Known about the structure:
Layout lengths: L5 H9 L11 H11 L7 H12 L4 H13 L1
Helix pairs in contact: 2-3
Amino acid sequence: xxxxxxxxxxxxxxxxxxxxxxxxxxxxxxxxxxxxxxxxxxxxxxxxxxxxxxxxxxxxxxxxxxxxxxxxx
Length: 73
């Protein structure tokens, strides 16, 4: 599970909180988020452009592989 702490698990259980499993390809976004952390882009276009520049180096085959693995879940 995403939350291993007994304190967190007890809190989630007490409040009947369901966890949503993340898709396999979510790790791509955590990688790009790390490199963009601390940067501020005023116009939304700049944010889109910089995010796309972070995702471009990832090979298309990796995206496809993640999609196939996600469908198997």
